[in-house]
Amino acid sequence: MIQMVTEMLRAQGHEVIPCNNGDSALESMEAHTPELVITDLNLEKSRTQGLDILQKARALNPPAIVIVITGFGTVETAVEAMKTGAYDYLEKPFKMEDFRLCVERALSYNQAISENVFLKRQLRDKFQFHRIIGTSRPMQEVFRIIERVADTDSTVLLLGESGTGKELAARALHFNSRRQFAAFVPVNCSALPENLLESELFGHRRGAFTGAINDKKGLFQEADGGTIFLDEIGSMSPMLQSRLLRVLQDREVRRVGDNTPTHVNVRVLAATNEPLERRLKEGAFREDVYYRLNVIPIQLPALRERRDDIPLLVGHFLKHKIHARSGQPFQVTRRVMTALSAYAWPGNVRELENVIERTCALSEGHVITLADLPAPLRECVPAAGDEPGSETDHLVVPHAPDISGPGAPAQRGVATAAGLAGPMAPGLLLKPLKDFLREQEIAYLHRALSHTNGDKEQAAELLGISLATLYRKLAEVGSD
Ligand SMILES: Nc1ncnc2c1ncn2[C@@H]1O[C@H](COP(=O)(O)OP(=O)(O)OP(=O)(O)O)[C@@H](O)[C@H]1O
Ligand SMILES: [Mg+2]
Predict the structure, then answer these.
(1) 71 with 105, same domain?
(2) pLDDT tens digits for 253-265?
(3) pTM for the whole structure
(4) DSSP secondary structure letters along 120-147
(5) Residue 241 belongs to what H/E stretch?
(6) Does 416 score more than 60 pLDDT?
(7) If you take atom 13 of ligand 1, which residue's CA is the nearest one?
């Protein structure tokens, strides 16, 4: 039977490792981490039984999916196997066609599962703290608080000038909490007139006002189980503030035109770029709402208060925004970096990001020089020695953490053009070790494969890894 099944599956293009007894199956699973394990429950003359194999397979990392084969009339054992995590069972004797379908189903199920896990992980990575760039002291303080309160349900009030990263921090809070798989709903409270914002936030009943043709769910309900982010909270009208108070106190919302409240499980994050204290004094903001919002305040520092982070941010934007989008590797000269570091940045990180983007778009070559910068930035460095051409010898290596340390000598941030022409993409010269090792690994796998003319079995042998591991690694980078 093993032989027949093996031949059939191989003919369909699957890699199959036949094992004649339980012990060799256990060893083989360890060595090859298979995607699918097919085992008879009753293994004659074997110490290791089908259930042992099932357990082992489920405990692998990643766990293998298991199909068990049972003897006729042994439904109880099959049920037990299903409870222990088998994906499916087949009763002997079975038709080959049923067997084939069962295998196909199991594999596509497994693929769906692992893709889902992958997508979720990707989503999470996207908003990991490392996307919020900064190693300066004030940013470390921000990270410390985010880390501490992310996975709580506490209300957080994000404070800071325009463009300092309040929304980015709000997303980091959400995507590092257990609510990460539920909705993150941002609402700009200054964008809509009072009555529209009210029905957006709380929803309305059909006929509640002219134009309310249908029942509408509010954003608080959309965010149920997740997080709502109330941006520019300072501009919320006193009427809406009192409606908000109900949500903050009792987690209850009432639709416009409806008297029955609905419970919502929502975490509230709010942001403002004008100090709320001023609005309090003016009587425009309710004190009780303020205290309920200001449970955990996080102050995002202005960019000019953390100039050390500017070279890092520049490197980050060149790599993740410009290079990733346009495929063009850009570099900046040392004098450009000096100008960028000296400027006051009233629009903070957003302004820096826009300047980089605009400058790269308008620049003729791939090296940004002082002349490419807008006038207010050019004026931040002394004009002396500004003769054309002299700058290109002093290209800055963006994204190099050691240029951001306080008091770091300027020379350390400087590389020669020759140094940058090395094998790695400019602007990415220093990257997280993990990324570097991964790239090296992928390149090495491809080298082995070209050495064996694409023969994966031989390549795996050369590399000293199992074929399954090679497949997995290639699949991970989408190049199988
Ligand atoms: N520390 C940071 N690291 C990387 N990018 C950042 C950082 N801070 C802000 N940004 C980027 O700057 C831009 C503005 O950030 P964000 O929208 O979070 O600011 P904000 O404080 O909400 O501004 P506003 O008050 O004007 O709404 C975004 O593109 C964001 O990705
Ligand atoms: Mg914002």
Answers:
(1) yes
(2) 999 999 899 999 9
(3) 0.61
(4) HHHHHHHTSGGGS---SHHHHHHHHHHH
(5) helix 238-250
(6) no
(7) 350
